Amino acid sequence: MILQIAIGLATLAFGAWGAAALWFQSPYSGRARAALPAAWLALAAAALAGLAFGHALLAWLFGAALLALLAWWRLGVRPSNARQWMPEVARQTQGSVEGDLVTLRNVRDFDWRSPTDYDERWETRRYDLSRLVSVDLALSYWGRPAVAHAMVSFGFDDGQYVVFSVEIRRKLHDVFSEIGGFFRQYELAVLASTEEDSLRVRTNVRGEEGYLYRVHMPEGAARKLFLSYVRTATRLVDKPRFYNTLTANCTTLVYRLADQIVPGLPMDYRLLLSGYLPEYLYRLGALEGAGSPEAYRQAGDYTQRARATLDAAQFSRNIRRGVPGVPQAAAPGQEATAAPGAGARSSAT
């Protein structure tokens, strides 16, 4: 009896999983798309009925079909870089390193006027890691406080910033589905871009809310983190992989990269609920300059500053006004100061 119950529960679980897998990987569209998932659910229902009435043959038949489905899932559903992509993820960032100099190809610098109206620019840019002076975490929210898109911006003493973002590589006409992210519907990309592109489009064009946090790291860690992003982005060009809503997304990959720098970082539910990452970083002592995560969040909200900035050349400076831990630009004749309450320790170089 216990064995029958266990087999029945497994049949229910694999019936639901298989139907979802066939739905999201179906080669058909419209009404025909439901044909394979419906047939799979019918087979699972027949297997359950067979278990209930003592006809084990139907359960064995479902088991054989499940093995075939798993083999197809393992061998037949493979990631690829050769698809028709949305323009904003049509290219992949890749880099080369020579000493302190890093050359990044396909740095995105789109000029966005609306979600569908923009000028496409993909550039090759060079960065001198000896001039790397800051690491900022940017979080963008679109409705739910527990969920945000996480991006990491690296700043250089010549005024350059480059943002690394873990992106879903959506195909043309794809509609995003969080459930689809569990079923290999999208490939993964690590994309480098300018702040005037990736941060501005979210606040000024998509209507999202943006927050900036200056992250303080041990000496040398910022450089290693930068190079980790470069290696990961370049590796994905040669070896594509799927995005996964739970195990391979913007926040979990930030953790995996950071863990290479500071081994043994504690696991935490806030790594899955990305909107609460500031509380996690505050607990680690990586945020300085404010008395609480709430105070840091309030000062780091750059949404209105971004929307009020019409000159793209002033964007990076304006969104950092008042952010704790960020040295503030001084008026002529005065020395620069840190944001109110900012700690004395500077960001890693």
From TrEMBL:
TM spans (from-to): 40-73
UniProt-listed InterPro entries: Lnb_N
Sequence segments annotated as region (Disordered): 323-349
Record's keyword annotation contains NADP: no
Entry-linked Pfam families: Lnb_N
Cleavable signal peptide: none
Biased composition (Low complexity): 327-349
Transmembrane as UniProt keyword: yes
Keyword annotations from UniProtKB, A to Z: Membrane, Transmembrane, Transmembrane helix
Domain Lnb N-terminal periplasmic, first and last residues per copy: 118-275
Name of this chain's protein: Lnb N-terminal periplasmic domain-containing protein
Species assigned in the record: Achromobacter anxifer
Lineage of origin: Bacteria, Pseudomonadati, Pseudomonadota, Betaproteobacteria, Burkholderiales
